[in-house]
Amino acid sequence: MTEISFIDRVAIVTGAGGGLGKTYALDLAARGAAVVVNDLGGSTAGVGSDASAAQKVVDEITAKGGSAVASHDSVSTPEGGAAIVATALDSFGKVDIVINNAGILRDKTFAKLENQDLEAVLDVHLRGAFHVSQPAFRVMKENGYGRFVFTASNAGVFGNFGQTNYGAAKMGLVGLSNVLAIEGAKAGIKSNVICPIARTRMTEDILGPLAESVEPELVTPMVVYLASEACGLTHEVFSAGGGRYARVFVGLAPGWFAGKGVEVSADDVAAHIDDIRNQDGYIVPSSIADELQALLPLLQG
Ligand SMILES: NC(=O)c1ccc[n+]([C@@H]2O[C@H](COP(=O)([O-])OP(=O)(O)OC[C@H]3O[C@@H](n4cnc5c(N)ncnc54)[C@H](O)[C@@H]3O)[C@@H](O)[C@H]2O)c1
Question: Are the C-beta atoms of residues 180 and 137 closer than 8 Å to each other?
Fold first, then answer.
């Protein structure tokens, strides 16, 4: 088996001062990457800041002979995102990999959710990924190489009580990655999504009996693979947790075709709802074009 190497690669890992991000930064650095360890260092709710979080991880990497630099900027503003990418360029001259991992939680039921909880979560997860990825994408396009990993969540992809803000932000990242995969294809840029399951400060109170089996280090290999040159995949989503690695996908079922030009009522839809929902023979479109391709033969008779 070929060993995955990151020699001469420069990686940005956001939210790498602890939890999952720290494990990614350590493994990338151990495999030769120069790493920007970014972390604002606030609480799980996104309150406060602490520059020592990122610095400790940098110290751990450099003590082992690796190469890393700390960044304490927040991903949640365009200026912060630009500064994180500038740190990579100033310190290491380029950026090859961005792992968008920074995250906070402001869980509330939908009826009780306040606008500030929505904004804070969108700012870090969804807008934060835009703020860091856009300046990095421009550099990668010039260099003809790039790897993005976006961190979604099963809470968004599958749904979870009390997390409308978080779930929407996380599912938004799937859309961002899908489009980036298409826009980056010609420039050798791959973009994929991870839905992790791991015991971290974010989840230690909610995992119950699963907690002892879901070490963050069991997510790391999937993310490091997706960040590597060995990964030729793009536009995909993976679940990783507890040593199980699985593709997650959005499929399109063949559905029910009413016939070209046929008038269709809600009653017709009700009558055919089982056909519409039938999953047999689904495809996994890799762009809008694939869906239109599936529709075209029906409309052409
Ligand atoms: N642990 C899980 O089971 C799980 C499940 C699904 C998704 N996730 C996602 O994985 C990612 C990592 O989470 P974790 O479980 O390691 O939790 P964590 O709290 O240990 O890590 C998140 C890190 O992001 C940093 N951060 C927060 N806001 C920031 C900002 N504005 N700028 C820069 N850094 C910031 C925090 O300081 C923290 O170190 C998050 O995006 C989270 O939503 C985790």
Answer: yes
Contact 87, 75 (CB under 8 A): no
Predicted pLDDT of residue 257: 97
- What is the distance in A from the centroid of ligand 1 to the CA of 102? 4
Which residue numbers are catalytic?
166
Judge whether 102 and 124 are in contact, CB under 8 Å: yes
Q: Where are the alpha helices (DSSP H) in 150-254?
A: 154, 164-184, 220-226
For residues 246 and 157, the answer to whether their CB atoms sit within 8 Å is no
Topology of domain 251-301, CATH: Helix Hairpins (1.10.287)
- In CATH terms, is domain 10-248 a member of 3.30.565.10? no
Per-residue model confidence as pLDDT tens digits over 52-67 = 999 999 999 999 999 9
**Distance from the CA of 152 to the center of ligand 1, in angstroms?**
11
User: Which residues of the chain have a pLDDT value below 70?
Assistant: 1-2
Nearest CA to ligand 1 atom 42: 103
Of ligand 1's listed atoms, the one at least distance from the Cα of 200 is 15
Residue ranges, comma separated, of all CATH 1.10.287 domains in the chain are 251-301
